[in-house]
Amino acid sequence: MPIIDTSFTVLALWAVFGYLIGSIAFGLLLARAMNLGDLRTIGSGNIGATNVLRTGNKTAAALTLVLDAAKGAVAVLLARLFAGEDAAQVAALAAMLGHCYPIWLKFKGGKGVATFLGVLLALAWPVGLACCLAWLIGVLVTRISSMGAIAAASTSTFFLVILGYGNAFVLGVLLTLLIFWRHRENIKRIKEGQEPKIGAKKA
Question: Which of 102, 135, 116, 125 is CA-nearest to residue 174?
């Protein structure tokens, strides 16, 4: 944990900011803007980049990935710039919660992978890069999107410690648990051998 030297009121404000920016559903907005339909009725019904890819529009999927990561990074960087490391970590967690449980969509949001990676890249870029690599390896080896997420989340706290960012260990654990919780159905399907692979027509 970082040293808490920011007032509760200021931390609460950054939590609200992080949540609000995290709750912007870029996948849903891009799908509507590009006339791809309502993501909530396509594939898995998820609003993230993987489900956007199921529309067949790779550009939209790539933009969703980048923007979902960027909103997590922006929350961290602005909080760190104007308040400090404690506020940055609060904003990071809040941005993840905003993405996963946006009030605008009745708390039915994405699974948080891109935002998770964006948060880590802004919080501790060596850790973020290591987790991006873990995600990429997981996806390339298995061709299963959720395996990349599980690989990145599983290694994140390890990388935080060995790369010298132990003050974010508690945050790392919380983010990892959130990723695992959001992927609980995917994990169940993986165990049953029923998790769809990238390129499959059905979610």
Answer: 116
| Contact status, residue 198 vs residue 143, Cβ threshold 8 Å | yes
Query: In the chain, how many domains are there?
Result: 1
CB 96 within 8 A of CB 175: yes
Q: Does any domain span residue 186? A: yes
Residue 97 maps to a domain: yes
Note down the domain range covering 14.
Answer: 8-192
Residues sharing a CB contact under 8 Å with residue 156, sequence separation 6 or more, in sequence order = 116, 120, 127, 131, 172, 175, 176
Does the pTM exceed 0.85? Answer: yes
User: pLDDT tens for residues 80-99?
Assistant: 999 999 999 999 999 999 99
Q: What is the pLDDT of residues 42-90, one digit of tens each?
A: 777 788 887 887 887 889 889 999 999 999 999 999 999 999 999 999 9
Task: Give dist(CA 40, CA 7) in Å, integer.
Answer: 39
Q: Could you tell me if residue 17 is inside a domain?
A: yes
Q: Which two tokens stand for residue 54?
A: 């199921």
Domain contains 198: no
